[in-house]
Amino acid sequence: MSFHAYDRRVELPRAVVLxxxxxxxxxxxxxxxxxxxxxxxEGVAIDAIGGAQAIRRALTRHDGARVxxxxxxxxxxxxxxxxxxxxxxxxxxxxxxxxALGADQVLRVVDAHGDLGPxxxxxxxxxxxxxxxxxxxxxxxxSGGSRKIQYARYLVExxxxxxxxxxxxxxxxxx
Length: 175
Description:
Elements: E1 2-3, E2 8-9, E3 15-19, H1 22-34, E4 44-48, H2 55-60, E5 66-72, H3 76-82, E6 85-89, H4 93-101, H5 103-112, H6 116-124, H7 133-141, H8 147-158, H9 166-174
Parallel strand pairs: 3-4, 3-5, 5-6
Antiparallel strand pairs: 1-2
Helix pairs in contact: 1-8, 4-7, 4-8, 5-8
């Protein structure tokens, strides 16, 4: 296949992981690096498709490649309708990482990145008081601009590689 504007050969990936968003992409890239894998050199691409509703459109970009998906539990049905290999985060990536690390370790990561004060502010809000700390942490990571993306990397960096969530491990093992 030739890319007409530059008349160069464009190498198509042999495999593609479709993910909902950038935080999923960052988590997988970080985990691959921690395991000593160079996905690009292996011919693997990760495509953050901008939400589960874009799955069908994304598939058209990857004709001929082996395609697997990583998706949150609430969106798994849409992925499963069009892909054979779907790995599901329950309830989502943040929930999987928080469970794998444990709340105490996640709080240490939050503290190490200077966010313990803002997290404690969230905990004091009436709608979040008394809720399990794991729920509070998921909410905290999902708020604040790029926090979700940053913490995808931070939490995967903190993971014991023997305790990697099944969905993340499954995606990398499938490639």
